[in-house]
């Protein structure tokens, strides 16, 4: 009851003069704002009791007084097994280890490996994402088919496979001793599933090129989150190159997709969802970067985040009764089943590359790689659907690579300068 007046009040704020997207014509219960509140209520039903339990165990000084059979589990979830590191109080220090003795060629190879893995995983994922969220299944000459509407179920499918892969990998290989309190993964998990939900949901209201354009401008928000969450410091050229990359990719994307279909018109709802995606995603990468101050592997990070992601999403789906409904949709449409499974595989592989890249190079470098992926996604669309690249689009690509070369040159100069500093001086810490 409380949501209905707020919902009705928000409807007129959508872009006037544009035809309402078909996703809004089915029922008000499918409107994104209502779904967001319903999902948030489901997450709160798990988060609030968990928060109260954590506060209870901390106030009781459970580490000294607890002796029950659940003591190891509670200790691992609430308190962890060890402290972060010697430098945990210095928020400016980078959490990942970059050995000074590693050769430049090896670092370049690692960067290329991360970039190739991210591109392959997320280019495939992007193509499938648009297919699942914007097209119908089961269409015939007499039947228009039906669209899949529950974005949260797709998030759950992605996370359950990633959880399984990470769990098997941790069980079969030797991993560092885990010391982080498990509940700390829940922050990154919650922002991660919210950003993924916003990303899927936004495709109901805006075109895919518009969504890609918004993703391309994430570099600066991530750097801002880095200052807030991890207290990182950046040089002026890092801000300059981040801005140039965003401008260049924006030029290319805007010039490559001048035509918009009526069913994917840009609306106020789509813009709000994209803003939510950028904010949540920026927080996720920087919180994960901060968690690496604990001695853990990227796969342990992946496992911890996805444990809570599965818990949050399946709990919310069961409470809404949406889990069985989505499974029935899968049973009716085998093509959707294949697409959902392949989406999950790409997501799981992509997460492995995300955690490894952030651990090795930091959140800002990871975002630059993903920004390039936006341009490659449009290039792939041009190859598949026959779109042409304009002169402005070509200039945008040139601006992007110019910014990357400038960033590499500036980083190398800073490293050389830091080696010449006297022993008592410390250069500004960069990502």
UniProtKB/TrEMBL annotation:
Q: Which GO terms describe its molecular function?
A: 3'-phosphoadenosine 5'-phosphosulfate transmembrane transporter activity
Q: Where are the transmembrane segments?
A: 33-57, 108-128, 153-172, 236-255, 261-280, 301-318, 338-356, 363-386, 392-410
Signal peptide annotation: 1-17
Q: Which SUPFAM superfamilies match?
A: Multidrug resistance efflux transporter EmrE (SSF103481)
- Annotated GO CC locations: endoplasmic reticulum membrane; Golgi membrane
The record's principal subcellular location, in a coarse class, is membrane
What is its membrane topology? Multi-pass membrane protein
Q: What is this protein called?
A: Adenosine 3'-phospho 5'-phosphosulfate transporter 1
**Which PANTHER family does this UniProt record tie to the protein?**
ADENOSINE 3'-PHOSPHO 5'-PHOSPHOSULFATE TRANSPORTER 1, SOLUTE CARRIER FAMILY 35 MEMBER B
User: Is Methyltransferase among the key words of this record?
Assistant: no
Where would you find this protein in the cell? Membrane
**Entry superkingdom:** Eukaryota
Q: Which UniProt keywords apply?
A: Membrane, Signal, Transmembrane, Transmembrane helix, Transport
Write down the InterPro entries for this protein, in alphabetical order. Answer: EmrE-like, SCL35B1-4/HUT1
Q: Which family does it belong to?
A: Belongs to the nucleotide-sugar transporter family. SLC35B subfamily.
């Amino acid at each position: 009851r409380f949501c209905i007046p707020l919902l009705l009040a928000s409807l007129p704020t959508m872009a006037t003069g544009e035809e309402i997207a078909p996703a809004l014509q089915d029922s008000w219960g499918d409107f994104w704002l209502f779904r967001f509140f319903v999902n948030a209520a489901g997450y709160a039903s798990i988060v609030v009791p968990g928060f109260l339990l954590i506060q209870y165990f901390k106030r009781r000084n459970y580490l000294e007084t607890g002796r029950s059979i659940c003591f190891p589990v509670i200790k691992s979830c609430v308190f962890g097994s060890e402290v972060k590191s010697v430098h945990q109080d210095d928020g400016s220090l980078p959490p990942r280890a970059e050995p000074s003795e590693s050769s430049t060629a090896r670092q370049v190879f690692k960067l290329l490996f991360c970039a190739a893995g991210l591109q392959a995983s997320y280019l495939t994922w992007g193509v499938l994402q648009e297919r699942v969220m914007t097209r119908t299944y089961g269409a015939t000459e007499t039947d228009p088919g039906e669209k899949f509407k529950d974005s949260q179920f797709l998030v759950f499918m992605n996370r359950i496979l990633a959880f399984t892969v990470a769990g098997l990998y941790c069980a079969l290989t030797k991993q560092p001793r885990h010391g982080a309190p498990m509940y700390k993964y829940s922050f990154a998990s919650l922002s991660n599933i919210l950003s993924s939900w916003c990303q899927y949901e936004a495709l109901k209201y805006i075109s895919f090129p518009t969504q890609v354009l918004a993703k391309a401008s994430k570099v600066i928000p991530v750097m801002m989150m880095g200052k807030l969450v991890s207290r990182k410091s950046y040089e002026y050229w890092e801000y300059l190159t981040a801005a140039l990359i965003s401008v260049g990719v924006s030029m290319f994307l805007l010039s490559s997709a001048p035509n918009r279909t009526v069913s994917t018109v840009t609306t106020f709802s789509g813009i709000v969802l994209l803003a939510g995606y950028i904010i949540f995603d920026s927080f996720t990468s920087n919180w994960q970067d901060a968690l690496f101050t604990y001695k853990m592997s990227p796969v342990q990070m992946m496992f911890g985040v996805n444990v809570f992601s599965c818990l949050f999403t399946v709990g919310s789906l069961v409470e809404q009764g949406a889990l069985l409904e989505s499974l029935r949709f899968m049973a009716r449409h085998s093509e959707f089943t294949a697409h959902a499974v392949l989406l999950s595989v790409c997501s799981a592989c992509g997460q492995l590359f995300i955690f490894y890249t952030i651990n090795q190079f930091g959140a800002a470098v990871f975002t630059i790689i993903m920004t390039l992926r936006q341009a490659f996604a449009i290039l792939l669309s041009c190859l598949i659907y026959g779109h042409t690249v304009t002169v402005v689009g070509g200039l945008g690509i040139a601006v992007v690579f110019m910014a990357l070369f400038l960033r590499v040159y500036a980083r190398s100069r800073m490293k050389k300068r830091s080696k010449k500093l006297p022993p008592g001086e410390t250069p500004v810490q960069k990502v």
